[in-house]
Amino acid sequence: MRTDDLIAHLSEDMQPVRTGMVARTLLGAAALGVAGSALLMLVALGLRHDFTASMSSFGMWTKLVYTFAIAAFAFWLVERAGRPGADMRRPFLLLGLPVLAIALLSALQMSAPGADSHGLVMGHSSRVCAPLVILTALPSLVAAFWALRRLAPTRLTLAGAGAGLFAGAVGAFVYSFHCMEGAAPFIAIWYTLGIALTTAIGAFLGRHLLRW
Amino acid sequence: MIAQEAQYRDWMLAALAGDGAAYRMLLQGLTRHLRSYYARRLDSAAAEDAVQETLIAIHTKRATYDPAQPFTAWVYGIARYKLIDEYRRHKRRATVPLDEAADLFGHDEAAEAVARRDVNKLLEKLPPAKRRLVKDIKLDGVSVAEAAKRTGLSESAVKVTVHRAIKSLAEGLGKGQEGRDAD
Predict the structure, then answer these.
(1) Phi and psi at residue B67, in whole multiples of 5°?
(2) Between B24, B74, B78, which is nearest A11 by CB?
(3) How far is CA A93 from CA A11, A77, A98, A117, B152, in A?
(4) Burial code of A103-128, b = ≥16 C-beta within 10 A, e = fewer?
(5) pLDDT, tens digit, for every residue of B60-102?
């Protein structure tokens, strides 16, 4: 086909494009992902037995705020990554904030008088934490990839990493409702590890699954 | 900021609102940039395919353009992605040349228009008959024999006239330059 004919064909019967397609796609995927991850956690792992009491504990809110902040900035990063040529610096830089905050809080708890630093770091579930975060993240990872495939990612590894980061943070957020831990050093190490591994999985898959 | 940004962005916004004529002008404008971009990076058959693939990608992914971001950066992102895709498909090269949006839109039509205007201004300094000859032979590619037939002069007279006219223009330019230097 000649290029001129192609242009004529493409510009025939133009329909207005509904604004907000990117936001709708991503929000829909996020909602499905969160629902899927929550369902998986409830069925496979179960809610922590002291759920009601835990909602007024500092440790629970440490986990929820930390993982929610990462999920929110990662969502923004994915939104940028799905648009060619978009500037990603701001969401990238903002991701440093929750990481810095959890590091400071960990230092504070570790340096408190009489702190049991081994207990604060290792808790009772350090070995299963990261794998279970990854497991809980999987439905959100599928949803984030589905959404990105409908957009136009041009840096596939980076876009995949963004999707993995988002899914990992959602997974960790949801996993918080099962996990009994609440010490900042534990969260800073094991939750972050689970999120980072999910990010790595996303980065690897991005190159293969996000081509269009 | 890339020179064409404002114009292309206006066309794109009109196209997103359903304006087919604006969209057509946009795609025709972009095609010129894409052709020269891919021609410098792919062989000629692959280059035209890449142009068409990119136009189709622009079309199918047009909802991902965010009006808060530069439009030329959006197009460049797609063009570069399609270039990398082409390299990957033929496993021709592991690395992709470093370039940036200005390389896609680097063929500067604004500068070309200015140059054309300058030449026309310069030619106005010549008497009409000489101006016509210089324009025909030097700009429009008319042969000396044809110009001689048109004007009724001999071929050698045509050559001499054009030569002298160019020389006088060059001298005029030189003087203008000196004048500016003296300021």
Answers:
(1) -60, -15
(2) B24
(3) 40, 10, 11, 30, 75
(4) eebbeebbeeeeeeeeebbbbeeeee
(5) 999 999 999 999 999 999 999 999 988 888 766 556 667 777 7
pTM of the model: 0.78
ipTM for the complex? Answer: 0.88
Give the CATH number for residue B139: 1.10.10.10
Distance from CA of A159 to the nearest CA of B (A): 13
Q: Which of 77-96 (B) contact A at CB < 8 A? A: 77-78, 80-81, 85
- B92 and B115 share one domain: no
Q: Which residue bears the tokens 């500068």?
A: B111
- Residue A172's nearest CA partner among A71, A67, A43 is A67
Neighboring chain A residues of B29 at a CB cutoff of 8 Å: none
Query: Which segments in chain A show pLDDT lower than 70?
Result: none
Q: Which residues contact A195 (CB under 8 A, 6 or more apart)?
A: A67, A70, A133, A165, A168, A169, A171, A172
Residue B53 binned pLDDT confidence (cut-offs 50, 70, 90): very high
Contacts of B96 in chain A (CB under 8 A): none
Domain assignment of residue B139, given as a range:
111-182
Q: Which residues of A touch B69 (CB under 8 A)?
A: 83, 85-87
**Statement to judge: residues B9 and B99 lie in one domain:** yes
